[in-house]
Structures are given as structure tokens and as C-alpha cells.
Amino acid sequence: FYKAAGCLTCSGLTILNADINSRTDGIGIDAYIVADAFSGRLPTSKRREKFESQFKLALTGELDLDKMVATQRKRIKYKGGSSGTIEPTVSTRQFHEFYNVIEVTAEDDLGVLYTVTKTLTEMGLDIWIARVFTEMGAVVDTFFVAEIEGSKIEDPERLDSVREELVAAIKRDATPSV
């Protein structure tokens, strides 16, 4: 998931909405609604082709996504239309039987979904379901996650750590205001 988000960013595309579902047989079904990060219009065939070629390289490990996303952030200076700074917030809910629900609200910024999903992955969490929504300069993303071995996070300190790490990563990777 984070590799797709990173490749979309590197291709000059911004993710407006996404619906991500992982099946127990290892198959993921992802649907993205994207726009050109420069113009806000539908992506050109050139941008779509760039994404496809980069995604193939990312899946094989032949692409340094961190470096490429950082370069793209410097190059585009994208801000998603927010009229002010939206402080990132991360909340967790325990109502689901098998997953923890993590809700992220932040200022729309190029690569923010890459940052969030990569951070979750690096923390040893599997993203089973994600609903990504971007509007009026804000992202409101919901992730259903479990530990890599499949269990729900029960430890309150672990949940606190996830929240803190996500907020820190979003702030660290935020594009400076232009």
C-alpha cells in the first residue's frame, strides 16, 4: 500500500480518495481516485504510465521511494488548498473485534499517505482496510490494522506509541509552507 502511495506521489499525482481492502488469502484490492498534483485535473496518460513503471520497480525493490518522495516534495511544493495549518491528530478506537481502528486527520500534503502507511508498516502493523478521503485541504484517513502476526493491539502503551509515531512522522515529512 505504501509503495503504491509513494509511486503515485513520485508520478506527480495526488490521492483524493482510496478504498483499500486486504483479503485473508493475501490478495489486496485497491482503488484510488487521483488528480494531477500540478493542475488538479485528471492525470495524463504520461503520468499514469510513469506511475505504472515506477510501481513495478518499487515492487521489486529497485526504487528508493524515500529519496524520490523527498525530491518530489521539494520540487512540487504542493499544498492541497488548506486555508491554514491543520495540526495532525491520530486517534484509535477499539470497537472492532479483530482490528484496531486508527483515524488520521492532517493537512493535505504531497506524500502524506505514503508517510502514514510506511510508518504503520515499519511499526509492524498490517493494514487490512483503509478509507482515504481528502477534501478542502484536509485528509481524513481511517485504517483498520492488526499486528503483523494477526492479533489486535491490546497494550495501551503500544497504541500510544503508534499515535505518537504517526504524528511525529507527519510533522517531520510535512512540506514547508510556501
Task: Describe this protein's structure.
The chain has 178 residues and is an alpha+beta fold. It has helices spanning 2-10, 45-59, 65-76, 112-122, 156-173; strands at 13-22, 28-36, 89-93, 100-107, 125-135, 138-147. The chain is built from five helices and six strands; from the N terminus they run H-E-E-H-H-E-E-H-E-E-H. The chain has a six-stranded antiparallel beta sheet. Strand 5 and strand 6 (138-147) form a beta hairpin. Helix 4 (112-122) runs antiparallel to helix 5. The mean pLDDT is 90.
Short description:
The protein has helices at 2-10, 45-59, 65-76, 112-122, 156-173, and strands at 13-22, 28-36, 89-93, 100-107, 125-135, 138-147. It is built from 5 helices and 6 strands.
Percentage of residues in helical conformation: 25-40%
Question: Would you tell me the structural class of the helices and strands?
Answer: alpha+beta
Largest β-sheet summary: 6 strands, antiparallel
Measured between the Cα atoms of the first and last residue, the distance is 29 Å
Mean pLDDT: 90
Number of helices: 5
**Poorly predicted regions:** none
β-strand percent reads 25-35%
Oligomer: single chain
Question: What is the radius of gyration?
Answer: 16 Å
Shape: globular
- Secondary structure: number of strands: 6
**Lateral arrangement of strands in the main beta sheet:** 2-1-5-6-4-3
- SSE succession: HEEHHEEHEEH
